[in-house]
Amino acid sequence: MQAKGAGLTVKISWSWASSAADTFSSELGILSKSRPRLLTSWSFRKVPPGTNGGITFWGTMAGFLGAFIIAVTSVLLLPFCSVGPTSMTGKLFSHNQPGFEGGRGWSLLEKLAWVVAATIWGGIGSLLDSALGGWFQASVVDARTGKVVEGSGGTKVLLAGSHDKKDGNTSRRIESGIGFLDNNAVNILMAFVMSIGGMLLASFIWSVPFSTIFE
Q1: What is this structure's pTM?
Q2: Are 181 and 137 in contact (CB under 8 A)?
Q3: Does the chain have fewer CB atoms within 10 Å around its N or its C terminus?
């Protein structure tokens, strides 16, 4: 299924699927009644809602739903090559054959495979974002309320300057993460990894050359 700009199409579509999955899992997963568990913890321990790297079952399912919506939308809007007319012998011209038969045409089967692959890839992107956040982004918890403190605009939350008025002790603690990246950097890194990985996966499934990203 080689086509001009196919690599760029995969990069953009599957990156959006990952981003949508991350957004859905974050915004809807926090509504889960069960406490999230830290994906990067060997014991899979429970953490406060909003902790970077914390996941729940329903939050994960919401992520896959977000990726599915993008996948279906892309199938409806992208100009996929259709399975073309047949020759006088009743056979399809080679370039109009379905993709799984060596051509460039997108039959219902190829489009279904696209939706499934993009949905799974987007869901994996959401889990990757959680893992990166759990490892590299510090989750700061207010010791008095037990709630996660979020930085303005996705920036880092500082521990310094937050002290209890009674005993002077720092009222914030780090629940997880080393604080190497902020939320914005984690999102960018996830999108980059999933974009490149998506193009490599597409080149394997649909024989889309990686070089078509530059066409």
Answers
A1: 0.78
A2: yes
A3: C
